Amino acid sequence: MFQTARLDSALPKAEAYRDLLSQAEGLFHGETDAIANAANLSALIFHGLPDLNWAGFYLLRGERELVLGPFQGKPACIRIPLGRGVCGTAAERRQSVLVEDVHAFPGHIACDAASRSELVVPLLQDGKVLGVLDLDSPLPGRFDAEDQAGIEALAALWVKSSA
């Protein structure tokens, strides 16, 4: 049985994310199914990081639409067009988007009114967008550059492990 560990708030963030990455490597060991790995990574992030109210995947379907994938949290928006909201913007730009206050983000899509900040990382394989990894928090300014780097590393591991 796999044991997850909540990140210790006394650890420096970079070290805490290394621990989370190590746990994800253990979860993915010997498994290449993208959906199974997305489900486990969503749960690992949601239960491993403090102050989240949503963590999960939106996967690209067709050329212009993200569709809800595995997640942890309240029910979510099912379809997001590329270029719309934080998720669609990150996918279209092919770069992470960190939003300190979602109410100040033009075109923000409010799936959960409690969300105040958001971090979205695109899932890229050979330059192609596979989807995004999305984290929401009820706290304004919850995410910073260290969170972005940590989640980008987890997203890259998911892409590498989910052939």
TrEMBL record:
Protein name in UniProt: GAF domain-containing protein
Sequence ranges assigned to domain GAF in this UniProt record: 33-162
Similarity section: Belongs to the free Met sulfoxide reductase family.
Gene3D superfamilies per record: 3.30.450.40
Top-rank taxon, per record: Bacteria
